Amino acid sequence: MIVEVEVNGKRHRRDLEPRLLLSDFLRQDLQLTGTHVGCEHGVCGACTVLFDGEPARSCLMLAVQADGHKVGTVEGLAVVNALSPLQAAFREAHALQCGFCTPGFLMTLTAFLRDTPNPGPLEIREALSGNLCRCTGYQHIVEAVSRACGHPRP
Amino acid sequence: MKAFAYVNPSNESDALAALRSGGIVRPLGGGQDLLARLKDYLDEPDRLVSVKGALNREAAATGDGGLRIGAAMRLFEVAEHPEILKRYPALAEAASTVGSPQIRHQGTVGGNLNQRPRCWYFRQEEFVCFKKGGNRCFAADGENQYHSIFGNDGPSKIVHPSSLAVPLVAYGARFRLASASGEREVAAADYFTLPSMQTVQKENVLADDELLTHVILPAPGNVRSGHYEVRFKESRDWPMAFATVVLAMNGPSIDSARVVLGAVAPVPWRAEDAERVLRGRLLDDAAADVAGEAAVRGAKPLAQNAYKIRITRTAVKRAVLAAAGRSV
Lengths: 154, 328
What we know:
- The complex is a heterodimer.
- By secondary structure, chain A is of the alpha+beta class.
- Helices cover 31% and strands 15% of the residues of chain A.
- In chain A, helix 2 crosses helix 5 (139-148).
- The relative contact order of chain A is 0.16.
- In chain B, the strands form three sheets. In chain B, strands 4-5-8-6-7 form a five-stranded antiparallel beta sheet. Chain B has a four-stranded antiparallel beta sheet with strand order 9-10-11-12.
- Chain B is globular and about 60 Å long.
């Protein structure tokens, strides 16, 4: 079926099979491979994108469901080679090692910080509860979020 | 997953007509359960009907002081809605702890109530259990640590997976069900069905061509409510046992009580013994103790889940204390 979707501000029109996942559409059809696919069961959060501004797992959504909607991916965060404040904080705080989970964390936390500009430590941990990271032990990710909202230490 | 057709109707009557379009048709809400089931070949529909745009997603006051919630309202909206927080706080609390932020932002009220069981045998294609037309429940003498301790005399030992169902039964909610040939209202308590050999393949009375369109909450009256979930981890997991208590108050004492247990039975489980012992008592620590004891009377644990008796007792006790305004 014909689907029109806006991804990172750019409109796309495609004829898609209904069973195509949004994650596969982004990665294969649009070549936006920053969205990673981990468990494909809605557990790990690596494939998190913003769907009309809200965090969603793109592996638990059909591309046809995005018809007429706006999708944001990690490729849309940095502006002309300048990292977003959250991305910069991730780099400063060493909030990534292998980096596989990082795009999902960045998308979840981008929405979270927009809605909760000054979160407490428990709120930060709850916010990232839907994203798994097997390298960092989360400590540096929590610290990066604190830095991104202007707190030097958590 | 198997190929299917997809339709995205913009109103309820088109959605209901699409449910009767032939073959196996499934409504798709937030998709947080259905998509995983399609991937695992647990469900192989010919057609999906997206109902997110067709069903109401607001909470609106009813004429008699209650609240009517559209089935397409998402869980994070339930958790943050000022009227729900003020008048039905146990419902807001239950919604706030479902899954993860991603699930709460996409998952809907209707989807939470109608999701299929999380039993690990049910979720594996290879285990053809009663629920999938087979001839046994693998949990009965298998790995049953997360299965039922009440209502488990029937063919299936699942626990009902919905967090919202428990406070909704406790608050006395009703569900509006609609099909192309009419509509009906069913009490939340009568919506969920204990498994029998005739009904084991479903968890509720919703017909294949029906949609649960609204949840209707009665005016709360002079009640105090409390909700407590016992979890292995603090977030991002199903609770192992939980309870909602709704207490109709007469000054400092309890006029009548609803005590409903979650994650312990194939349906939201009314703990009627606990309701009886609370009636007429002062709302205090002793009331919490006796309610906890009474709630687990008659439990029949399976080989690996006797621990649920203790945590269910704790959940009820703390839910009563929460209703008394104590921090638990």
